[in-house]
Amino acid sequence: MKDILQKKIQELRETIKNSPKEKEEVQYECPICKDRGLIYKDGQAYICNCVNKKRFENQFKHARLAGEYLHKSFDDFQIKYYSSYRIDTNSNVTYRQLATQCLTAAKLFTDSVINKKKHKGMYVYGTVGSGKTLLTSCIANRLLEHNIELLFISVPDFLDEIKATFNQKGNQEMDLMNQVRNVRVLILDDLGAHTYTDWSAGRIYNIINYRASNNLSTIITSNLSVDGLAEALDERTSSRVMQLCTLYRLETEEDIRCQVYKENLKRV
Questions:
Q1: What is the mean pLDDT of residues 211-220?
Q2: At what angle do helices 235-244 and 198-213 cross, to 10 degrees?
Q3: Which single residue of 57, 122, 212, 251 has CA 20 to 30 Å from 151?
C-alpha cells in the first residue's frame, strides 16, 4: 500500500513538472478593475470608469450614427464655407446668415431636449453637400453625451432594412417601425428626391404622423423644400412635417466636401 502511495505521489510530481506553466499575467480590458466593473477602496465599492465608457460606446453604436460623423461637434460646423455675399432669393439673406441661423437653432434644439423644455423639431433642407448631415450629427453627438436616447436613420437604408424583413418569420417589420416611432429623439436623414412607392410613402407617413401626434423630438434633413416633399411623397406628409418642425435652409456655392478637399491640396 505504501509503495502504491509513493508511486502516485511521484506521478503527480512528474505531471506538475511537465505541465505547461500558466501565464504569469492575465490580460484585462481594464487593468484598473480587472474587468469586474467595480473598484474596492477602503471597504467601499465604486463603479469603474470603464463601465461608463462602455455604456457611452454602446449608445453611439445603437444610435446608428455613421462612422465619419462620430464625435463631430458644433465646432466642426464651420460658417466659413458659406458665402457672405451670395443671397438666397427665398429669404433675401446671405448663405452665411442662413447657416448661422441654422446653427443657432440646432444648439437651441439640443439645449431644449437636454433641459426638457418645450420645442419644435427641425426640417433642414438644401442642396447636396451643404452640411445638413454634418449639422444634425453634431446635434446627435451632443445629445448622446448627455445619455439622451436617439436614433440617426438614413431613410433609404431604413426602407431597405424593412424590405429585407419580408421573407422572415416574426414581427421584425413592426419591431423596427415601433423602435423608430417611439425613440425619444429621431433624426431622419436624407428624406429626399427618391422614387417612393405607395408602400414606402406610407411607412414614412406612419412614422412622421405618429411622432407629430405624440410631440416627439424629430429632425429631418432633405434636398427638397416642403413643397417638393409634397410632390415626392404627398401633401399629408408635408403638412405633418410643417406641424412637427420649423423649416431651415442650408445653401453653398460649392459642395463643402469639395471645398475641404481643395484646402487640403493646398497644404500638401
A1: 97
A2: 30
A3: 251
